[in-house]
Write a structure and sequence with these properties.
By secondary structure, this protein is an all-alpha fold. The chain has one domain. 82% of the residues lie in helices and 0% in strands. α2 runs antiparallel to α4 (69-96) and α3 packs antiparallel against α4 (69-96). It is elongated, with a radius of gyration of 20 Å.
């Protein structure tokens, strides 16, 4: 038997004496926090690999010729994207409060 999202919300709302909106908000918050942890972990991996703390420092390494673009471009692009996503999720979490 498949329970629909609406039915599940109804059951949780009744059993935990919470509004459906509170349950959805809590679920979204959990989802965003989990995604944020994953993103931070990947940022940490990339920044640790190059001993930097931001995409700006990555750019500096390129400009100073300390690393070759051909060897690290994928990491640079990924870090840039991850930092953008991190900021977006942090903004959403702040707005939810």
């Amino acid at each position: 038997m498949q329970i629909t999202v609406d039915k599940t919300l109804e059951i949780l709302s009744r059993d935990f004496n919470l509004s459906k909106e509170e349950i959805l908000k809590e679920g979204l918050k959990y989802f965003l926090e989990k995604r944020l942890r994953e993103i931070k972990s990947e940022i940490y991996r990339i920044t640790g690999k190059y001993k930097i703390s931001s995409v700006e420092e990555f750019e500096t390494l390129y400009k100073e010729g300390k690393i070759e673009e051909k060897d690290s471009l994928a990491d640079f692009q990924k870090l840039d994207h991850l930092e953008f996503k991190k900021e977006e999720i942090e903004r959403l979490l702040r707005e939810m409060q």
